[in-house]
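Long-time lurker, first post. I've been practising inverse folding by hand and with some scripts of my own, and I keep getting stuck on stretches where the structure tokens seem ambiguous. Below is the full token string for one chain I'm working on. Before anyone asks, I'm not after the true native sequence, just a reasonable design that respects the backbone. If someone could post their per-position residues I'd love to compare against what I wrote down in my notebook.
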């Protein structure tokens, strides 16, 4: 970062941007990767690129972060909220199939906690509707795989988040992953306030002018330097997170049946990205009580997500009401445990001890 500051190129598209984008391009096998100010910005760019606007409908999971839906709705799209499947907590292809109609232009998939959703099932549903594009909101799934193919390489576009809460971070940042070469020129223009600055820089046009819609979405090169340092350490970071994840799973497994909680499920054809560790508490448990008891021991746990289909804005933007019973159930029961790359392994044991003791007490 000091080198980036001294180099004097603080704005987007400097030398560190190019190096970080190259790592991502090569790892994901993408046509191009454009670093952005956030995953939300990359989702907005996807919506612009797909020509989303009034009259379009976009299918999104109800069980996701707001940005997955917001980026499309702010261009005038109506939303259809799909439920998730119980195994991966990703989109349920059958529910998506039942929501498809002539106005649907895109389906946005999330690989929750870094476990791929049913991409084969979704692919089969979408094969019958070639005018519907798949976008992967891959904020959790960086370097995860589905049947040995990188997450983020299945959609027309996919998006990454480098927010402080994510595995790889530069505080605030993201990326738009382009899997079609014919989207590159337009996406670059839209990321550069609708100007042909890139073509001008490359000497392909002799005037730098306003040619399209867009906004200011480029990540500062100083932040790209922070990101690059992390991407270069990716093997160590991923290995560490896998070890933490396995330690949780192994320590909790002997208690799961007795205390009736459910551990995350990873189908054998998926390599998870280990974005977080969560469990599903048994139905009558008072989750607030568990959170407070653990907080008293200095252990910070959290919920996920307030379903979008029943949020005030989500309900007002829905093209039609949907029923998402799995989402409703999971969002009431899910508990995320402390999980960060720099967490000592024996901290996992302490969290598990306190959690098990609390559940023994709370569930009676
Ligand atoms: C974190 C997150 C986002 C938003 O990422 P930003 O980089 O903060 O815009 C979007 N979608 C999902 C699924 C996320 O987890």
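-- Answer (accepted) --
I ran through it position by position. Result:
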């Amino acid at each position: 970062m000091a080198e980036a500051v001294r180099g004097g190129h603080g704005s987007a598209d400097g030398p560190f941007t190019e190096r970080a984008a190259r790592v991502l391009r090569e790892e994901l096998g993408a046509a191009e990767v454009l670093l952005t100010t956030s995953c939300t910005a990359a989702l907005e760019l996807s919506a612009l690129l797909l020509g989303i606007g009034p009259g379009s409908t976009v299918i999104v999971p109800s069980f996701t972060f707001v940005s997955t839906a917001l980026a499309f709705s702010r261009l005038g799209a109506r939303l259809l909220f799909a439920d998730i499947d119980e195994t991966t907590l990703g989109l349920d292809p059958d529910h998506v199939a039942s929501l498809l109609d002539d106005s649907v232009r895109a389906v946005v998939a999330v690989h929750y906690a870094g476990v791929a959703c049913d991409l084969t099932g979704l692919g089969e549903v979408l094969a019958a509707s070639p005018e519907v594009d798949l976008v992967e909101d891959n904020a959790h799934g960086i370097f995860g795989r589905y049947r040995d193919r990188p997450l983020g390489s299945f959609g027309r576009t996919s998006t990454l988040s480098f927010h402080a809460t994510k595995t790889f971070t530069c505080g605030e940042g993201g990326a738009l992953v382009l899997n079609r070469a014919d989207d590159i020129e337009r996406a670059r223009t839209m990321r550069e306030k609708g100007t042909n600055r890139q073509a001008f820089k490359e000497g392909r046009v002799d005037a730098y002018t306003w040619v399209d819609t867009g906004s200011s979405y480029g990540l500062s090169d100083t932040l790209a330097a922070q990101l690059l340092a992390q991407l270069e350490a990716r093997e160590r970071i991923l290995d560490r997170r896998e070890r933490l994840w396995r330690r949780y799973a192994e320590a909790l497994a002997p208690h799961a049946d007795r205390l009736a909680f459910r551990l995350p499920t990873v189908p054998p054809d998926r390599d998870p990205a280990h974005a977080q560790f969560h469990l599903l508490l048994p139905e009558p448990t008072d989750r607030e009580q568990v959170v407070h008891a653990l907080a008293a021991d200095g252990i910070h746990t959290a919920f996920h997500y307030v379903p979008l289909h029943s949020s005030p804005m989500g309900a007002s933007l829905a093209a039609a009401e949907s029923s998402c019973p799995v989402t409703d159930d999971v969002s009431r029961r899910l508990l995320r445990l402390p999980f960060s790359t720099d967490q000592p392994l024996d901290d996992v044991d302490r969290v598990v001890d306190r959690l098990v003791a609390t559940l023994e007490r709370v569930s009676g």
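A couple of notes from the structure itself: Residues 38-40, 64-65, 67-68, 110, 137, 139-140, 161, 163, 174 surround pyridoxal-5'-phosphate (CB under 6 Å). Residues 234-259 form the longest helix (26 residues). Happy to go over any region you disagree with.
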